[in-house]
Amino acid sequence: MAGIRLAPEDPELSSQQSRGAVVSDLISDDERSVAADSWSIKSEYGSTLDDDQRQTDAADALSAANFPPAPSSDYSSDKEEVEAEEAAQSMLGLQSYWDSAYADELTNFREHGHAGEVWFGADVMELVASWTKGLCIDISHGQLPNHVDDTKSELVDQGDKYLSTWSVLDIGTGNGLLLQELAKQGFSHLTGTDYSEGAVQLARSLADRDGFANINFLVDDVLETKLERQFQLVTDKGTLDAIGLHPDGPVKRMMYWDSVSRLVASGGILVITSCNSTKDELVQEVESFNQRRVGMSQEYEKDEEAGRDPPFRYLSHIRSYPTFMFGGSEGSRVATVAFVRS
């Protein structure tokens, strides 16, 4: 459930706030997002969409939506608290914040060998990696997910030979430790990107030290990606959360889905881990994106049948995270959801 902050695995190693920092319940999920200027991209319709057009399209779609007004307080202290939280959101959504944060972590690594924070904790990271492995093996055999976490089937035990052909991209990779976990699970074609050069330098240094020099790390912003290839597996652990913290959050979030849809190969999967959005909220956000994309496809394509398939559909989610009850609803501190690309 959104609204709960996860403590870093080793808080004494770094004073930075988690990329998955959780915002107040007074602020809606649609008000979160990551700093990046848009650049011209080639659309799937054959035309070129520049920054202004993408921003305008996103703003138009947002203006047509009915978002509930944020609750207000009669007490100035409450207002000041909300304003402080909004300011913190804006900070965590800016690239300058993360450049500074990773510069500190890189210095800490060089001086003390510390890897920095593990977003959501090592246990969550290991579970995401092992669960994703099982999911990819099922898909490799044309099977639907069995919806059972931590299953030790014969296929999973023999996973290396099935995963060797999977191309993997981790967007907003940070220190790259999730890719190291995926490598331990048998994935071998691994790429990590981050818009912070300091994060990429740290990830490379850790991979070299830990014996994973084959992992490829690149400086690239998912919102203005220059990658010209697609991947069978794209992972996001906390990146969409950080994108949601930008002052222009709703627009940046829509740009995120547009970019990610171009990075996931047909039949490939997107695995998102979030502590700011629930499973149901992520599914709803994808459904909203699907509706926008299908509408755009029908507008641009002469043959309307060509644009009727939604880009993503829900595939599965991790069910073994601890849950709790709050306000009559059940939720967990972390949600991991997989979507398949049509």
Describe this structure in words.
InterPro entries: Efm4/METTL10 (IPR026635), Methyltranfer_dom (IPR025714), SAM-dependent_MTases_sf (IPR029063). By secondary structure, this protein is an alpha/beta fold. The protein is built from eleven helices and eleven strands. Strands 5-4-3-6-7-11-8 form a seven-stranded mixed β-sheet, with helices on both faces. A two-stranded antiparallel ribbon has the order 1-2. α1 crosses α10. The protein is globular. It starts with 40 loop residues before the first strand and ends with a strand.
Outline of the structure:
The chain has helices spanning 51-64, 76-92, 95-112, 122-140, 154-157, 159-163, 177-184, 197-210, 239-243, 249-263, 279-300; strands at 41-42, 48-49, 167-171, 189-194, 216-219, 231-237, 264-274, 312-317, 323-326, 329-332, 335-341.
Residue stretches low in confidence (pLDDT < 50, at least 5 long) are 1-9, 11-49, 65-75, 146-153
The main sheet orders its strands as 5-4-3-6-7-11-8
End-to-end Cα distance, whole Å, is 28 Å
Structural class comes to alpha/beta
- The percent range for strand residues is 15-25%
- Overall average pLDDT: 77
Number of strands: 11
Number of alpha- plus pi-helical segments? 11
Topology pattern, helix = H, strand = E: EEHHHHHHEHEHEEHHEHEEEE
Bin the helical content: 40-55%
Q: Name the overall outline.
A: globular
Q: Rg to the nearest angstrom?
A: 20 Å
Largest sheet: 7 strands, mixed
InterPro entries: Efm4/METTL10, Methyltranfer_dom, SAM-dependent_MTases_sf
Subcellular location: Cytoplasm
Pfam families: Methyltransf_31
GO molecular function, one term: protein-lysine N-methyltransferase activity
